[in-house]
Amino acid sequence: MSWKGIKNVCGFKEMKNYNLVIRQLLSEFLGSLLYLSLVLSAGIGIKSTNDNEGRRLEHGTATVLIAVANGLAVASIITIFGHVSGAHINPAVTCGAMICKHIKPVKAVCYVVVQIVGGVAGAEIAYLLSSETIRGDLGSIIPYKHLREDQVFGLEFLMTFMLVAVVLSVIDTTRGARGLGSAPLAIGLSITAGICCCSPYTASMNPIRSLGPAVIMNRWDSHLVYWVGPMAGGLVAGLTYRCLLLYHQQTIVLQSSRIDLNRMLDGHRSE
Questions:
Q1: How many Å apart are CA 225 and CA 148, to the nearest integer?
Q2: How far is CA 131 from CA 34, 58, 125, 138, in A?
Q3: Dihedrals φ, ψ of 50, to 5°?
Q4: What does R_g of the chain's alpha carbons equal in angstroms?
Q5: How far apart are CA 96 and CA 241, in angstroms?
Q6: pTM attached to this predicted model
Q7: I need a surface site. Which of 173, 188, 221, 223 has the fewest CB within 10 A?
Q8: CA distance 270 to 53
Q9: Gap between the Cα atoms of 127 and 238, Å rounded
Q10: What InterPro entries does the annotation carry (predicted)?
Q11: Residue 184 near residue 78 (C-beta atoms within 8 A)
Q12: Long-range contacts of 243-248 (CB under 8 A, 24+ apart)
């Protein structure tokens, strides 16, 4: 492959549209900042909430509230920024989108960089806006003490696979034409479902969700697994969806060819 071909595949050419690229990167930065600041603040507030008798909320109740807050926050951010950058706000989603050719590699790397910076900035905002008495570990994702790292990896892989598969489904124009409802709501609910299913064992599904509070609080317990698990889930989801989509497209083409052939044969018979 020539150098020109490599540049086209990697997406260097589209990066020359500076106005669009800057808007997209700023959207990813602001979306990631909002996401971390909102969900971390929500977690701090919910975990520190007392009932009328001064008792803390039960774990199940707190988990559901945090899951709903996460899902609604993501749905809101996608509604705000989705038309500009796609509102990935998640390196695993960007990875899956790149595999399915929704975004070129160079821009994908830029997305991940600004997502990381925005996530850390959002965690810092949540830190500054919370009281030291209730801040705790700032919502750091820490694996359940009775789980091995390979088990945490498996849970993160499965949850992120589901999330990225949902994202790829709702941005698939061939399926969107038939109507799949609200994309932000579908993505938000997949996050809510993942947190409800896998908390308290683990519930990141997003490397920057783990990285932000880890940087601010300097807590790195099994941190690498919260990158490897979600990124692997996003990668496999992208590969799986791309293969299924290509098969789906080939099936449609084959069926259309058969229909056209039958029409031609019917026409010849009538003559």
A1: 11
A2: 19, 22, 12, 10
A3: -110, 150
A4: 22
A5: 9
A6: 0.86
A7: 173
A8: 85
A9: 34
A10: Aquaporin-like, Aquaporin_transptr, MIP
A11: yes
A12: 245/100, 245/172, 245/174, 248/174
Q: Which CATH architecture best describes the domain 3-270?
A: Up-down Bundle (1.20)
100 burial type by CB count under 10 A (0-12 exposed, 13-18 middle, 19+ buried): buried
Do residues 209 and 123 touch, judged by C-beta distance below 8 A? no
CA–CA separation, 208 and 91 (whole Å): 8
Would you state the structure tokens that stand for residue 242, as one six-digit string? 């791309």
Residue 117 CB neighbour total at 10 angstroms: 16
User: Would you state the structure tokens that stand for residue 116, as one six-digit string?
Assistant: 């990381």
Q: Which residue has the tokens 């293969």?
A: 243
